[in-house]
Amino acid sequence: MSLIEVEHLRKEYPNATPLKDFNATVEAGEVISIIGPSGTGKSTFIRCLNRLETPTSGTILVDGVDMCDPATDLPKMRQKMGMVFQNYALFNHKLVVENLMMAPMDKLGLSKQEAYDRALGLLETVGLRDKALNWPQELSGGQRQRVAIARGLAMDPKILLFDEPTSALDPQMVSEVLSVITGLAERGLTMLVVTHEMRFARDASSRVFYMDRGELWEAGPPEQIFEHPLRQETHDFVFRVRNWEWEMHSITPDIPALQASLDAYCQRQFMGRHAANSCKLVVEEAVLNLLRGIARKVGVADPNVKVSIAAGEGGVDMELLVDYRGPLLEVPNLFDMVDDDLSLSIVRGVCKKVELLEPGLVRFMI
Ligand SMILES: Nc1ncnc2c1ncn2[C@@H]1O[C@H](COP(=O)(O)OP(=O)(O)O)[C@@H](O)[C@H]1O
Ligand SMILES: [Mg+2]
């Protein structure tokens, strides 16, 4: 028998049916990444699993126990199944260590000393032992989420559920949280992780669930989902998340927002440091310096430049397109004119190939 068995799970609300007919099994020790467009029932599925939501119909067996049977001891089952939310949900009026002591004292009857010792061990696991006596607000977002993970472990669960554990974090904090989760996988914990971090899904999970419109459309090892998906919907979704787009409609664009979005994209992708830096460099030199400079010089308020990046299989061969077929196309022979521009020669140096596909459309191969 599998650790988790879900059959014909359905959840209806008056105006929405986030789960239509969900079927899946999960074996002990598996790490499942759940990916898919937003609004397709991923959170609802996770919340039905530990019965934060009551399914409309269908069955959920966890460790052989029917989660929908009114006789089932749900608090006991939830001890087997920790949950980590997007927004940490720590108690801010309790010290970090106290956040981890409460449930074991209440529910397992541990003494204060026992709970304290155990909490320190858990903090060690997530690399935050030295923050035990801090207040949660004194920690960074990434650190708070690591405390939340430690708290999820406090009842010694067999299963840990995560609902977008990194989506509220700044890009630079995402990897510290993901590496803690990856470390837990190595300890044999069974985990289901709703995530939009494709790199994590690819590198850290044993199987990936692709959810769409309330159903599990495709489940398989990461190579299948990311390289050889069986269904068109999976293919299209993976393609979409592999692509990044940005439009410059002002000569004073929001550069920090642009950088954050590009950073997040590079991180989500299976991109090495070299490719990521090259993408950033092309955007910076070719778009922000060169095209923006020209727009400013010729007095164009909305340069209408579109930048898109498409990642090839496995993150090699990034294709970065810069489309300035708007007002800047009027600037005669922009690419010839600036042929010896320093920005462009730097860009040429880091790219495998730079081509003018048509007037106003340049392709940089990285
Ligand atoms: N408590 C609720 N009441 C009504 N509709 C809900 C509720 N929870 C979720 N939904 C709806 O169900 C759909 C799927 O939601 P959700 O499971 O959160 O998707 P995902 O996590 O994949 O983004 C959404 O359209 C959402 O509006
Ligand atoms: Mg969700």
Order of helices and strands: EEEHEEHEHHHEHEHEEHHEHHEEHHEE
| Small-molecule binders | adenosine-5'-diphosphate, magnesium ion
Radius of gyration: 24 Å
* Residues in β-strands, percent: 15-25%
Number of domains: 2
Give the termini distance in whole angstroms: 48 Å
**Quaternary structure annotation:** single chain
Low-confidence stretches: none
Global morphology: globular
> How large is the count of helical segments?
13
Structural class: alpha/beta
Find the CATH topology of the largest domain: Rossmann fold
- The CATH architecture term of the largest domain is 3-Layer(aba) Sandwich
Helix fraction? 40-55%
What would your notes on this structure say?
This protein has 366 residues and is an alpha/beta fold. The protein has 2 domains: 4-239, P-loop containing nucleotide triphosphate hydrolases (Rossmann fold, 3-Layer(aba) Sandwich), CATH 3.40.50.300; 242-365, Heat Shock Protein 90. The protein has 13 helices and 15 strands. It has a 6-stranded mixed beta sheet, sandwiched between helices. A 5-stranded antiparallel beta sheet has the order 11-12-13-15-14. A 4-stranded antiparallel beta sheet has the order 2-1-4-5, covered by helices on one side. A hairpin with a 2-residue loop joins strand 14 (353-358) and strand 15 (361-365). Helix 3 (96-108) packs across helix 4 (112-125). The site of magnesium ion has 3 residues, from helix 1.
List keywords for this structure.
Heat Shock Protein 90; 40% helix; alpha/beta; binds magnesium ion; binds adenosine-5'-diphosphate; single chain; 366 residues; six-stranded mixed beta sheet; five-stranded antiparallel beta sheet; Rossmann fold
